[in-house]
Amino acid sequence: TCESKATSQAKLKASSPAFRPSTSKLKQLSISDMPSSKSGASSSSKNISNSYSNSNSNSNKSKQLKIAPAFTPRQLLQKKGADPKPDEDGAWQTQDSPSKPHASAGTAAGDIASADKRYAEDDYFLKLPQASSQMPYMKPVGYFAIDEALRRVLTGEMRAESTVVESDLPFQIHNYCSLSPIENIDLYDASGSFSVQSIKAQSIVDGRHYRLHRINQPLSAPQVVLNAIDRWKAVQSPGVAQVHEAFTTRAFGDNSLVIVHDYKPLATSLKAKIIDSGVVVSEAFLWSLVLQLASALRAVHSAGLAVQLLSASTISISPTNRVYINLCGLADVLALSGGFNMNSAQQGDLHAIGRILGAIIGTSHENLISLQGQAQVVVPGAGFSVEFKELFSYLNRRLTPVIAIDDILRLAGSRVFAELDAVRRDADLLHDTLRLEMANGRLVRLLCKMNFVTERAENNMDPEWSETGDRYLIKLFRDYVFHLVNESGKPVADMAHVVGNLNKLDAGSDEKVMLMSRDEKSCLVVSYREIKRCVEDAYKELVAPTKGKAWQ
């Protein structure tokens, strides 16, 4: 009888091991057969009458049912077994990468490949299936996904920010806590050499991470010298690590001077990444390096300032080969530039670019020339273009004693447009990624509504509310999405299945899906549109104002 059916359905065994079709146990079931509340099933649920037809062979009918295919996850379209890897320039490239990062070192791929191994250790990467599961009518998986190379870099940056290395540093200084050492930088000037300690710290004011540069240098007039940092706060350039403040502290057991700059996750010094490791770089990378440094120095010189300590040790480079000038303002704070000429200091910054290029290409014996009775001289070899050789001679003052940024751009020629194109491709990649991720919160809202309704102990003093009517259908759909098992009874944690079905539910697709009860004796065929209506109606009923006397 219908009453016995309703009673048996209300007492479904939650411990049943599987939720998969079993043609030998199927029986005819419609929405009206689902367990109803004391006041009867809702009228809206009766309108959903997608059930098996009144046929003598239910098993034959079940074979004709088309179960909704799992939606392919948000992953880049790649060949089976192929992983994203750096290209010949060491930059991350994948099958569907719409843009290419800045030109990079030719053999620097090893560093990024090791980072690839670290970044891949997350559930997002490990659970995604190959593109071979694509159906012909489906869009490429790369269409729905964040660029894999970009995702790995961002994942590494977040891990770098949250990682704190154990050390003997104080826990907090000034407004910064969670201090973690990064590196020690050795600098040289007219007065000799000194060392700067680079530290990562988190601000207790805004929660952001900053890079602190500490030097053991007592100041004769601290307040007057520290005021010199205010001019650097106004320098805004993508190639300059923003200067925020400077202060003195005794937290390290001495009179330490600390300058606070922006923290660039995963960025390492140019000296450590290329020069010390002996990496042979491409000419395209060198042109990109020169143009980025020239752009940053242009912003600094326009503000009437000079870096004065520009070297391979004070330049940071990111995994995508973005270049940043660090330690800006250190020479001003230390008063090392007393009585200096600004024009001479700015010329020294431009000449420093030539010295950096010489240190990079000087790691190869092909670019070294030995003269009788003289030290070896760095000269670009036959593998470099005529334009680069002219630029190298110009920056090292072999053509003229005066260097100008406009002349650097003239010598770069069409390579300036190549750099602009790379920047625009990166901007397009970020824009497309933001567009894809803009509405990702809709699935979270949908999950919240479903979980507000399912397995609720009671509503309006009705303990069977979540097990009757439309709410029972939502429970079956929840089991279909999250509680699947394979043929051997092992739980299936398939992100493609989850994301695909939630997207179809959110869109209200007319595609039908077969839902199975926990005892595997009954099933229900409904569309995603009908399930969505059940979710919305149940949620509205749940949040609606309570009528009558409130529960005491």
What do these coordinates show?
By secondary structure, the protein is α+β, with helices and mostly antiparallel strands. 37% of the residues lie in helices and 14% in strands. The protein is built from 19 helices and 15 strands. The strands form five sheets. It has a six-stranded antiparallel β-sheet with strand order 3-4-5-6-8-7. A three-stranded antiparallel β-sheet has the order 9-10-11. A hairpin with a 5-residue loop joins β5 and β6. α10 runs antiparallel to α14 and α18 (495-507) packs across α19. The longest helix is centred in the C-terminal third of the chain and has 23 residues, at 415-437. Mean pLDDT is 75; it is low at 1-120, 125-129 and 548-552.
SSE blueprint:
Blueprint: H1 2-10, H2 43-46, H3 58-64, E1 85-86, E2 92-93, H4 109-119, H5 123-126, H6 148-162, E3 172-173, E4 176-189, E5 192-203, E6 209-216, H7 222-226, H8 230-233, E7 243-249, E8 256-262, E9 268-269, H9 270-275, H10 283-302, E10 315-317, E11 323-325, H11 330-333, H12 342-361, E12 368-369, E13 377-378, H13 386-395, H14 405-412, H15 415-437, H16 441-453, H17 469-482, H18 495-507, E14 512-516, E15 523-527, H19 528-543
Antiparallel strand pairs: 1-2, 3-4, 4-5, 5-6, 6-8, 7-8, 9-10, 10-11, 12-13, 14-15
Helix pairs in contact: 4-6, 10-12, 10-14, 12-13, 16-18, 16-19, 17-19, 18-19
